[in-house]
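Run log // design_07
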């Protein structure tokens, strides 16, 4: 999802709300992992051709095992507890 946010915290909040809504509509489980990326400093136009990132997994593993396997926890990733 692409959100316009003024801060990392605002972007995380928007992503969490969207994930909750999407999961509720589709019967999915939301895990405590949100990744946000800055794709523009505000001066650049974001539109067709702008690179964004998305990942969807369908695995039959417990949530903790999934997070251990796929959450690399780089400096820009924050785990919400």
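design_07 sequence
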């Amino acid at each position: 999802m692409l959100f316009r946010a003024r801060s990392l915290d605002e972007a995380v909040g928007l992503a969490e709300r969207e994930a909750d809504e999407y999961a509720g509509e589709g019967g999915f489980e939301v895990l405590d992992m949100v990744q946000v990326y800055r794709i523009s400093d505000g001066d650049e136009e974001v539109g067709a051709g702008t690179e964004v990132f998305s990942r969807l997994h369908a695995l039959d593993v417990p949530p903790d095992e999934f997070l251990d396997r796929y959450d690399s926890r780089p400096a820009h990733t924050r785990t919400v507890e």
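The chain has a mean pLDDT of 79.
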